[in-house]
Structures are given as C-alpha cells and as structure tokens.
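B., you asked whether I could sanity-check this one before it goes into the benchmark set. Here's the sequence:
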Amino acid sequence: MRIAVMGAGSIGCHLGGHLARQADVEVTLIGRPAAMAVVAEKGLTLTSGRREPLHVSPDRIAVATEAAAAAGADVVLVTVKSDGTRAAARELAPHLAPDAVVVSFQNGLHNAEVLREELPQRTVLTGMVPYNVLQTEPGTFHQGTGGALMLDDGAPGAPLVAALAAAGLRVEARADMRAVQYAKLLMNLNNAVNALSGVPLRAQLGDRSYRTCLALCQREALAAFRAAGVTPAQLGAVRPALMPRLLRLPDAVFTRLAKAMLAIDATARSSMWEDLQRGRPTEVDSLQGEVVALAARHGLSAPANARLAALVHEAERASQDGGGRAWSGPELLAALRAKA
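And here's what the prediction gave me:
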C-alpha cells in the first residue's frame, strides 16, 4: 500500500510514522523543506505517555516538498491547516492516480467538501483525529491525549482502516462522520482557551474559570447547531448538550466526574498554543469563526466565540513580533463575559 501525506506537520508525521512501521506500507511525507530534511536525516520518533517511544528509521520513509511526490499513491492523507486545503488540492490534482483515495484528517467542518470541489473525479473521505499531537523537538512527535481515529465507513476506506489498525492505532469506521465533525468542533473550541492560557491542557481543564470560558463557547455552538438542525455525535460518556453544565461544576466535583477528560499527559498542550509559540497563523477561524458564522446564518450571535477569536488574532500578531501574554482564567472569563 502506497500512502502519501500532504502537509506533514505534527498530525501528518504521527500518522505517517505509524503507518511506515509496517513492511507492506510505503509512506511519503510531503511537507516543509526544513522539517523534511530532519526526517530524511533522523527519521521519526513517536512518543506517548501510554507506551514506550517508537523510532522510525529514515530508510522507512520517503520525504518530499512538492505534491508531485503523491503520484502513484493509493491513499493520500491531507493534514494541512484548513486555510491551505484548497491550495493543497489544486497542487495534488495533476498528480493523483485515477483510483486514489483522498482522506481529510483535518480540523473544521468543510475540508472534505473543499477537496471534493477541487478533485471531482476522486474519492474523498472524511477522517477525524481526536487527540493532541505536538512536536517536542525536530523529528519527535508526542501524542498527549487519547481516543480513536474515525473515518467514513465503506469499501473505499476499508484498506486504510485496516492499515491504521495494523499499525497499532485505534480506529473506527463511522457512518455518521458529519455528526462526528460537529462533535469534534465542540471539543476543539478549547484549543483557543488553552492557547491563550499558556498552561498545559490538564492544568487548564482543572481550572473552573478556564472551563467556564469553554462552556460559554460550547453553549453558543450548541444553540447554533440546534438552529441549523444539527445533532453532534456523542463521542464520550457525556452527551454534548450536557457538556457546558459539566464544565461549570466546581473543580473538586468536575475532577471526580470527568476523569476521562483529564486523562491527559501533564505537559500536553493544544496545537494552537504551538502555532502561537512558533509565530504561525492559527485555525481559530475554522473553529470559533465557524460557530460565529453558523450562528449568524440563523439569526443568532456568538459573542464569546467572536471575542475569543479576536483575542487569538491579537496573540498571532504579538507572537510574530516576539511578544504575547498569558491570560489567567479570571481575566479571560471576564473578557468573554463582557461581550457575552
């Protein structure tokens, strides 16, 4: 099986690295020149708090910086940020085999649709990565949270599901990926809270003020979903509609009731935090911005999400100038409540 990964950042290297450990799978990572040079020299190291580190030697992975390297691939995993999806599809289009299967493993709601628009003759599937992966040093990628990968059920995706499972990754084929995407969006609304907090995910979710910020964003999102006739999938023990109430509970009660949510490596952080640290644009417009847009289409407002998106954009500009600030829970909550 030949697999290409378009946009091999943290998630792409994590998935590609696991797949490349199988003798009957050939993996090509397509990414930034500097990152690919490290992989070509050192290979990949995949770490997790749940197992011993895994090393993938350089001779098990092909690297490239241009989409032409996807030629001949049976499966192409797209892991670019949402704002790069259309450009990635256009770069891939001249090189894809007629029977290639393209899979979006991205945040946001519309990436698979964009891929289908740009690649009308190809099979495009929706995937979902539930967990957090960060680059801890060049060539080393750490999975800080858990969960099962999800992918459209059906014959086109079956070989990839089998390959992911054989690579030791939890994976589920789902017939309700649209509902899964909305559930993932609810979860991802915490990315911005974590990025602005400046603290690891476990500590941030252990603080009621930060959780209340997330609850405000989720409450607005759920109202927009209801107006749009959308029911998000239940991916954990708690129904999505009850999550804002759970998040608002006192710390001691929340800690007892939400053990699974807090089963996070002590150092894990959101990918949006990493983007700010590296002076890169974030995906906040595909997360909080999506809620604001959906609410507006149905005559609603989402002021907490809008304010949080604005604060992240301010942080983006500050990070590019080498500055920025960490918001305490009470400070961030006050800023959101002032708008909400």
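One thing to flag: DSSP finds 15 helices and twelve strands in the chain. Otherwise nothing jumped out at me.
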